[in-house]
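REVIEWER CHECKLIST
Item 1: Sequence provided? yes
Item 2: Single chain? yes
Item 3: Sequence as submitted:
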Amino acid sequence: MRSTMCLCLMAALLTACSASLPLSSAPTPAPRQPITIQFHLVDEAPDSERPVLVNARTGEQVHLINPPVLDQADITEAKLQPDSATGMYNVQLDFSVPGSQKLADTTARNVGKRLAIVVDRQLSWRPRSRLR
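Item 4: Structure as written out by the authors:
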C-alpha cells in the first residue's frame, strides 16, 4: 500500500527537469537519466557555515541542513499533471508510506521553517512549512 501526497510544485521541479510549457505545445519528453531529488531543511541564519546552494534564477543563497530529510528513495512515482486553469503542468509525487510519514513528521516539527527541494543538485523550490 502506498500513500499519495500531491505536491503542486508548479514549475519548480519542472525547471530542473524541463521548461514549463503551455499544454498545447508540450513535446513528448525524451528518455533521460533518473533525476536526483532531495528535501533539506534550510538554516536561515545569515552566518551559517552549512553547505550553500545558489538559486540560478535569483542568485539567492540557501544554507542546507544535512542529511536530507527525504530523497528519491522515498518517492514511488512522479507524474506530470496538466493544470487547465493555468495552462502549465504540476508535478505529482507519490511517496512511499515511510516517505509520507517522514514528510508529515518533518513539517509538523518545523512549522514556519523552509524546506529546500533540490533536483539534480539545483535548488528548485523552498516552501515554508505551514502544516501541522
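Item 5: Key structural point noted by reviewer: The first strand starts at residue 3 and ends at 4.
Item 6: Recommendation: ____
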